[in-house]
Amino acid sequence: MTDELPFESARELAARMRAGDHSPVEVTEAYLDRIADRNDDLNAYLTVIDDEARAAAVDAERAVERGDDLGPLHGVPVAIKDLTAFKSGVRHTFGCRAFGDNVADHTTTFVRRLEAAGAIVLGKTNTPEFGHRTTTDNLLAGPTCNPFDPTCNAGGSSGGSAAAVAAGLTALGQGGDAGGSVRTPAALCGVYGLKPTAGRVPQPTRPDAFQNHTPFIDKGPITRTVADAALMLDVMAGPDPRDPFSLPAADGSFLAATDRSVEGLDVAYSPDLGVFPVSAAIERCVERATDAFVDAGATVECVDVEFGHDLGTLRDGVRLPQMHLLAAKVARNLAPSGADFLDAYGEDVPDTFRERVERGREYSAMDMANGELLRTDVLDAVLDVFETHDLLVTPTTAVASVPNGALGATSVDGEPVDPTSDWVLTWPFNLTGHPAASVPAGTVDGMPVGMQVVAPRYDEATVLAASAAVERERPWSDLYG
Questions:
Q1: What mean pLDDT, rounded, does the chain reach?
Q2: Which among 107, 194, 393, 439 counts the fewest CB atoms within 10 Å?
Q3: CA–CA separation, 456 and 231 (whole Å)
């Protein structure tokens, strides 16, 4: 096995294993060796399931030797964010010290699908407690460091998966996105992250089957190539009757969409969505990256996005109330029988999460209903853009890096901002449910920058086609290694 193997694409690894050029055992061992070498520095994984991964790799190798029909991800390693139950008996912490010894009692739908397609799960990746912040840090294990600068954070809340993908500690990573938690760490770590349309990847949550719509919470791939994300989405997507928001199967293959031409597409570019402060260096970097669309035959037009409200109104009126309510729901669902979550676990959760729970418990039904009016204004503004354009493109984040220990960026070009929300241009699309990806756009001062690509609802195919066009015109593979 060469040093290049951990950075081969998942498609390439799968093809080489089917051809006998690589073996699943050798590939798995190569990734486990790299995890052993790098994870202490990066803190990307909370749990590595060495024995289970090795056993799965042996089974995968025997299947190749027998000439069995092989799934599209046969033998390909994947990392699962530790907000998702992986398999009964495997450690499942939610990134929280109070649940450090908790084990899953079930396997969630999309993980079953990944394994059925032949993927080999290497372990569970780091996340802030219950995914509640835009950086990855917790009382359980500490911060996940950015592979490009270990003094900086990988971003959140899927920072463990993003760092693992960027550093070659897995071929594929999985994340969850309630406000940018796939796209933000993908941007900061220089990888590709896709939030699908709300409901594309089913999430049969219990005891509350309806919790993933306020905001729309989505599971998605984090990868080094666009085609790998498309292949992973092909496997993860599809209806599940236990999820009332899950969508019917998509028409066609997401992977096939990555070969589609973007010639003739009309791309709307907004440097700030009309309300976000964005670093001038980030704006310049992303604007240069939009030239890739022009080179691929599309047209790009700068547009004004008219939400009708300033950032503070949207943040305080709908974004944060939804996050607070979500935290209160988590506390309700995970409280010990007959006890209050904060009373039982208060010392093992950070003040930031405790505050969210307390505030979420205070909201009235009318508070939330009033927030939905703001949410509707955001939706209508985005729909106005798509009346005349096929895509909406923005920076993913307002800055290129955030130091470890910080809740988020506290200023943008000297302007103070709320670190919970003001530096990520991602969460409006969790209000609306549109598919959105972060595409590597270049670097600023040696740190990766992400470009967000958004399409109409249900049209992940155009997001993937456009992202792949950028990758062909401006390859980013030399970021890794």
A1: 98
A2: 107
A3: 21
Task: For residue 154, give the nearest of 193, 130, 186, 125 by alpha carbon.
Answer: 186
**Token pair of 249 as six digits:** 């199967």
Determine the Cα–Cα distance for residues 348 and 320; give it in Å rounded to an integer: 23
Please state the rounded mean pLDDT for residues 361-370. 96
Q: Output the six-digit token pair for 431.
A: 């209000």
By CB neighbour count within 10 A (0-12 exposed, 13-18 middle, 19+ buried), where does 432 fall? buried
User: Is a pLDDT exceeding 60 seen at residue 2?
Assistant: no
What domains appear along the chain, each with residue ranges and CATH number? 5-479 (3.90.1300.10)
Terminus-to-terminus CA distance in the chain, angstroms? Answer: 15
Q: What would the DSSP string read from start to end of 183-215?
A: HHHHHHHT-EEEE-STTSS----SS-TTTTBTT
Percent of the chain beyond pLDDT 70?
100
Catalytic residue of the set 9, 23, 124, 157? 157
Which strand (E) or helix (H) includes residue 268? strand 266-269
Sign, Cα dihedral of 470, 474, 478, 480 = negative
How far apart are alpha carbons 271 and 381 in whole angstroms? 15
Q: Quick check: is 279 catalytic?
A: no
Looking at residues 367-372, what average pLDDT do you find? Answer: 97
Residue 459: enclosing H or E segment and its boundaries?
none
- Integer Cα distance of 184 and 189 in angstroms: 9
Record the tokens describing residue 313, joined without a space.
Answer: 């109104």
Give residue 299's pLDDT: 99
Give the mean pLDDT of 190-198.
99
* Region 123-141 average pLDDT: 99
**Residue 1: which pLDDT band, with cuts at 50, 70 and 90?**
very low
The helix or strand, by DSSP H or E, that contains position 303, with its residue range, turns out to be none
Q: Which of 9, 23, 158, 181 is catalytic?
A: 181
Which residue, among 415, 229, 389, has the nearest Cα to 311 in the 3D structure? 415
Residue with tokens 């973007």: 262
- What span, in angstroms and rounded, lies between the C-alpha atoms of 114 and 178? 22
Task: Tell me 403's DSSP state.
Answer: B
373 Cβ neighbours under 8 A, 6+ residues apart: none
Question: Are residues 278 and 271 in contact, defined by beta-carbon separation less than 8 angstroms?
Answer: yes
Which residue among 9, 23, 81, 87 is the active-site one?
81
Whole-model pTM: value is 0.98
Active site (annotated) includes residue 364: no
| Integer Cα distance of 370 and 317 in angstroms | 8
CB 136 within 8 A of CB 157: yes
What are the φ/ψ torsions at residue 194 (nearest 5 degrees)? Answer: -120, 120
